[in-house]
């Protein structure tokens, strides 16, 4: 079967089987594999490249850019409040902008939407730890283990944080609370 017939074989939509080809003679115009590859390569060049990254030169331009991004994030959240990945992307972007208070606000709003999402709590506490906000991080861990006491990751990471801070008493306290909240987890 030549390439032309292979490309132009029609399928019956109800049976998904090839229909009978009426004309089995070779096509007048034969296409080689090299021609197909060359045409595909030419079409790749027709694709418009993405716009260059924006260069920001002054504080006013930076503020304008941030406002535009915040509006885009808020619009995506407004369209689908339940999509936690949008909330996390927004909070991470705010953290990248060194706007920790805004990122904290985004996480708190996201927790109002879904306070049972383990990933959300983990990302929130990890952001506080990256920012060296120990007390904020402890507060987040305390709230997380109170709301979701059966989530093992919270207990492990909370204990690990206290251990990294060389707070042995705090580490023991978290361990003791594990057994209070989860008596069967031995």
From TrEMBL:
Domain of life of the organism encoding this protein: Eukaryota
Protein name, as recorded: Crooked neck-like protein 1
Primary location group: nucleus
PANTHER family listed in its UniProt record: CROOKED NECK-LIKE PROTEIN 1 (PTHR11246:SF3), PRE-MRNA SPLICING FACTOR (PTHR11246)
A GO cellular component annotation in the UniProt record: precatalytic spliceosome
Keywords: mRNA processing, mRNA splicing, Nucleus, Repeat
SUPFAM superfamilies membership: TPR-like
InterPro entries hit by this protein: HAT (IPR003107), HAT_PRP39_C (IPR059164), Syf1-like (IPR045075), TPR-like_helical_dom_sf (IPR011990)
GO biological process: spliceosomal complex assembly
Subcellular location: Nucleus
Family: Belongs to the crooked-neck family.
UniProt cross-references to SMART domains, sorted A to Z: HAT
Transmembrane regions listed in the UniProt entry: none
Organism name: Chionoecetes opilio
């Amino acid at each position: 079967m030549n390439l032309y017939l292979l490309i132009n074989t029609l399928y019956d939509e109800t049976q998904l089987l090839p229909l009978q080809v009426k004309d089995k003679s070779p096509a007048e115009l034969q296409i080689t594999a090299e021609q197909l590859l060359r045409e595909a390569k030419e079409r790749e060049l027709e694709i418009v490249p993405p716009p260059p990254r924006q260069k920001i030169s002054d504080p006013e331009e930076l503020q304008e850019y941030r406002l535009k991004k915040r509006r885009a994030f808020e619009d995506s959240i407004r369209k689908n409040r339940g999509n936690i990945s949008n909330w996390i992307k927004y909070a991470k972007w705010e953290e990248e902008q060194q706007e920790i208070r805004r990122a904290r606000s985004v996480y708190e709003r996201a927790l109002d939407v879904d306070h049972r999402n383990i990933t959300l709590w983990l990302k929130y506490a990890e952001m506080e730890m990256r920012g060296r906000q120990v007390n904020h991080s402890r507060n987040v861990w305390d709230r997380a283990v109170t709301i979701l006491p059966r989530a093992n990751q919270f207990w492990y990471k909370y204990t690990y944080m206290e251990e990294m801070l060389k707070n042995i008493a705090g580490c023991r306290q978290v361990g003791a609370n594990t057994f209070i909240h989860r008596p069967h987890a031995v």
